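Worked example 2:
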Amino acid sequence: MIILAIESSCDETSVAIVEDGKKVYSNEIFSQIDIHTLYGGVVPEIASRNHIKKITYIIDDALKKANIKQSDIDYIAVTSTPGLVGSLMVGVNAAKVISYCYNLPICYVNHIHGHIYANYIENDFTFPVLALVVSGGHTELVLMKDHFEFEILGQTLDDAVGEAYDKIARVVGVGYPGGPIIDKMAKSGKPVYPLPHVHLGKNSYDFSFSGLKSAVINLHHKYVQNNEEINKYDLAASFQDAVVDVLCEKTIRAAKEFNVKQIVLAGGVAANSGLRTKMTEEVEKLDGVTFSYPSMKYCTDNAAMIAACAYFQVQKENI
C-alpha cells in the first residue's frame, strides 16, 4: 500500500510517500522556523500563507524524489486535527484536490496519532505499548493494546511541556524555539535552583506545568529586581530536571501498572536529550520492556508519520 501523506498542522509543510507504513520513498519538509523566530513564536496567519505558497512545490518534490507516478498511489492521507485551523485547511484542501483528480480515497489523520506512529517507521510495536506524547501543544500518556487502539491515561491539565519550554526560553531571553535551546543549556548547568516537581498525587497520570513555569518566571524576576545575576544554565538545568522527573515517574509507574512491553516517546519534545537519557536509564530497570524514540527527522512535524499512521487507520476503518 503506497500512501501520499500531507502534514500542515502548524508551521511545517510536509509531503511524504510511504509504502506499508515503513518504506519511506520521500519525506519533504519546508520549515518556517526562521520566519516565526522574528516574532518569538508561530503566527497562525503567516503560517497559513506560507503553506499556500509552498504546498504544490513540496508535493512535486516528494513525487520526484520518490520517483513514482500518481497512478502508483493507493491512498491520500492528510492531517485534519488538531492544529492551526488555517494551516490544516491548506493541507486538507490540497488532499481533496488530489483525491478528486485521481479518484483516490482520503484518510483523515489525527496529528497526535501520527506522532505515535513515527516510532513504527523504524521500530515495530510490541503490544501493549505505552506512548508518552510530548509536544508544544500536547502532553499525554496513551496506552495501546493493539494497532490504532488509543486509551488516554493522563494528560496535561494546563500547559503542554513544549509550551512551557518556549515560555521559559522567552523569559530568560535565549530565543525561539525554546525546547532545543533550553535542552542544550541544561547540559552546561546544574539543577541547583529549588523548583516544584508537580506529581499531582501518587495515583494521577495527569500533568501540570503551569506552576513550574510560574515558579521559574518568579525566580528569574526576583533576581532581576534585586539586581542579581541568575545563572541561566543552572536555571535551564533545574527546569529540565523538574520536567523530566515528572514525565519519567508517571511513565514508568503506568508501564508497571499496565504491564506494557514497550514504551515510546512521541512528539517534538521526544528529541530532548535529557528526557531520552533519563527514560533510557529508567526503562533499563524494568524487566521485559523495550524503549524507543524516533530519529530526529521524525520527531518534528512530518508527513511520513502521517502515512505510517494512515496505513493502519485505513485497515481499521475499512476506508
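The radius of gyration is 20 Å. The chain has two domains: 2-116+299-316, 126-292.
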